[in-house]
Amino acid sequence: MPPQLPASFTKAALNGARPPVHGGRPIPKVNRGLEAALAALEGSGLPWLVLRGENDLLRPAGDVDILVARELVPGLDDLLGGVGFRRVQALGHGSHRFYFRYLPHDDLWLKLDIVSDISFGRFQELGTALAEGCLRRRVRLGPLWLPNPADQAWLHILHLVLDKGEIAPDRVEAARASCALASATDPVAAFVDRKAGNGTAGALLDVLQSGRFHEVPAIAAGMKSRWRRSARPPRLVSLAHHALRRVGPRLQGAGPVIGVVAPDGAGKTTLLNGLRSQCPLPSSYVYMGLWSSSPSDRWIATVPGGLLARKVFRILRGGLTARYQSLRGRLVLLDRLAQDGMLGGPAKSRLRRLSDGLALYVQPRPDLVLVLDVPGEVMYARKGEHSPEVLEEWRSAYLELAARLPSARIIDASESETQVRKKACELLWKVVTGENTAGPADPDPIPLHQWMLMDWRFLLPQGKTGKVGYGGRISPEAVAAISLLDPAARSIETGKERPAVPDLDTVLLSRPDRALVETAAASLRPNGWVCVQVQRSFGPRSRALTLAGWKRALEKLGFEDVAVYWHVPRFEGPERLVPTASVAAVRDTLAQYSGARFGKAKAAVAGLALTLGLFDVAAPAGTVIGRWPETAAGKDSV
């Protein structure tokens, strides 16, 4: 239920004097997003005022309650839409209209509760004619229009008595402050006497001023029972509004569908919980996992077709629920997608293909897919499940999935929970407002191929690449990707004048010659790293023809901690970067890819090379990394 017009008072109000509104009161600070909304209302030429909380407008903790002239209501959607607000429709709230806006720089949701009538009661069943008079008697305070102090005091008293039905202990001080500013001769008091009987306002003030707060419930019940001359009977209005509120709030049109995907430990649950708790838009959570385990798995697996039947049930339950909630105008948050079950490649059985097709058909098409990207080591440290290698493979699979989904946007989920939620809210809000989520002002949605071109950075032990250099046959796209890591990254060229002091932390070289590697080494700081991407070569310009040869070359130059990673299945855009020092990792890769890409004969040759310790010679392409030592005294030339 939205707030019902409480007022805010300072301690100065307790002295019984009505505070001045010009010169004597500090001008409140107003949030820039809210300031734009108030400026739009002012530009309409029709009266409006902020009902309460004028000292909490820089970063409002709740709704900003605003009273406007009735003539302003038909154009409110367009007026506020022009300054970035979107309406959430809510039946059963009388004249209340709710508008929302997200400010990414402030990480703040602004919520406007705008009314054109002033009504009291739990369901706004006690109508009044106070709005016009309050607007006519409004007073100016800086950029704000506020109620006359006496009007504000009486609105607060009636809110406590008629809406709450009692004066709670934590509201006693505010009630006393209101009484200090109100009198039985005020315009609102005269209205109360007309509606609830002569002398009602004075009797109510007497009870509050004398501190007999235990009598308030009886007074409230009596005032409601005597509420006179209402165009609509309060009892019928209460019943109607109570029934309409069961429909719930909704966005205009179908609600957007937002999917969140990532391996275990990337932070899906944390992000979804953060969105549900911080985002004030009407939303619904739907779990779309098709193969998650359950206590009943043991006996379901004994029934022929049991697991498949359970999958179909989950498809229908999740997909139809998501469609229904979207049609209700609610923001749908999908935990996983139907596409998750297809990451391992196309299904081989006909029934599996049919069920996968059904899942894609029933699930609503996501308007936005948030792909949480976290290194495998980080995910393993968070949950301790699976292994860093397995999680890294899944991570690559999700990045490949992002390439096939036009609505996918990648978020670096290794950052803090607050930063991840903030970036997700910004993208979500762009979907709600119909903006392009990949606009030039949005730094996060990076194309998948650029992410894949930067996969080499995860081979380095340090967390950040620092100052970066690059050289060799680097494509323009790779240069653009490197600039995302270091906008000041520079090219390393043979024969180019070297810096007086080595200043680079990381150097990426693609298919270099020996002279370029020496130039890169001279540019590295102590403990800096070089990544050399190479293919097996038979050219006359290089003596390091294989991955093994490049490993020896770096070691002869003086690099330490040299390691080799095999590019699978190709040099450009590999699906895996496999450490050749791990026999288990290489055998697992050969087993997985032998049937699909290499053929049994090639797998057998590679397996023999692995057994003989010659795999670094046989591997066709890879990356060789090395660390420049603390005391960098180079050894022999390549």
Description:
- The protein is α/β, with parallel strands linked by helices.
- Helix content is 40%, strand content 17%.
- It has a seven-stranded mixed beta sheet with strand order 17-16-18-19-22-20-21, with helices on both faces.
- Helix 18 links the parallel strand 16 (468-472) and strand 17.
- The longest helix has 29 residues, at 583-611.
- It is elongated and about 105 Å long.
- Residues 1-23, 438-449 and 633-638 have low confidence and may be disordered.
Largest sheet at a glance?
A: 7 strands, mixed
Helix proportion of residues, in percent? 25-40%
Question: Looking at the structure, what is the overall shape?
Answer: elongated
Count of discrete alpha- or pi-helical segments spanning 4 or more residues: 22
Structural class: alpha/beta
Low-confidence stretches: 1-23, 438-449, 633-638
- The termini sit apart by 76 Å
Cα-based radius of gyration, to the nearest Å: 34 Å
Q: What share of residues are in beta strands?
A: 15-25%
Question: Which strand order do you get reading across the main beta sheet?
Answer: 17-16-18-19-22-20-21
Average predicted local confidence, pLDDT: 83
Number of strands: 22
